[in-house]
Design goal:
With about 240 residues, this protein is of the alpha+beta class. It has one domain. About 30% of the residues lie in helices and about 20% in strands. The protein contains eight helices and eleven strands. The strands form three sheets. Strands 1-2-5-6-11-10-9 form a seven-stranded antiparallel sheet. Strands 3-4 form a two-stranded antiparallel ribbon. A hairpin with a 5-residue loop joins β7 and β8. The longest helix is centred in the first third of the chain and has 18 residues. The radius of gyration is 19 Å and the shape is globular.
């Protein structure tokens, strides 16, 4: 009986391994970058519960439509060990969290923030590229007053063939050559800056903020992958 149970368990484990999404198979260390206590794909209500605020508390900071799309602005909340002016949580058209922007005051200790981010995500990347839906390349070069971190996996290797087909159908106007580049985008990324800079690589719209003392966590492509049916990559903290 024990032998039968052991064989059954091994068979079940093998089946589960085959069923795992590509982001969890033979790709080395899994490292998805997420804002603390706010996983990609959660909804506005979950963020408000975390910060113990209501729609009435937020006033004009509550900009969520009937589909869940929009933003929440939490004033004065702390992030990475330092008080912010505000934290903006951006939700996709499906209502899922896809980006977090933290705006710090001029006198914020951004070196402390940087050390907290290194403890959470490891050392920044030296350089990487991000491609827009038009195929435009945005170079993400770390140095000086702007630093980037990239998740370990690309949009492409998070998706199975069927999931790629589903996502491709949502982007019918995209040229095939652009599609190949688009799949190279990291599923998540982080950004730390103490300079005035509007970075098109992090913002899908033209109303990108340009200010000092800014931290951005972007999971746009992680959410895209989940919408196509992929299971999100687990988060691995730097100390693990």
């Amino acid at each position: 009986m024990k032998k039968f149970c052991k064989m059954t368990a091994l068979l079940a484990a093998a089946v589960m391994a085959l069923a795992l999404p590509s982001c969890q198979q033979d790709l080395g260390e899994i490292h998805s970058l997420e804002f603390p206590d706010a996983s990609w794909g959660i909804f506005a209500e979950e963020v408000m519960d975390t910060y113990e605020v209501t729609q009435a508390d937020l006033g004009d900071g509550y900009q969520i439509d009937d589909t869940g799309n929009g933003s929440l602005t939490i004033p004065g909340a702390s992030a990475f060990g330092e008080a912010s002016d505000k934290i903006v949580f951006q939700f996709a058209w499906t209502g899922e969290l896809e980006q977090v922007r933290v705006y710090y005051p001029e006198d914020a200790d951004m070196e402390k923030v940087l050390e907290e981010m290194k403890a959470e995500y490891g050392e920044p990347a030296h350089s990487a590229s991000k491609y827009t839906v038009k195929g435009e390349e945005a170079a993400c070069d770390s140095g000086g007053e702007s630093l980037y971190w990239m998740g370990s996996h690309t949009l492409g290797n998070m998706l199975s063939s069927d999931e790629k087909d589903r996502l491709r159908k949502k982007l019918p106007e995209m040229d095939d050559s652009v599609w190949k580049k688009y799949l190279q985008n990291p599923e998540s990324m982080a950004y730390w800056s103490t300079e005035h800079r509007s970075d098109p690589g992090l913002y899908p719209t033209e109303d990108a903020p340009s200010q000092e003392n800014l931290v951005v966590l972007d999971g746009t492509h992680a959410v895209e992958a989940m919408e196509a049916g992929a299971v999100a990559c687990p988060v691995v903290r730097a100390e693990e």
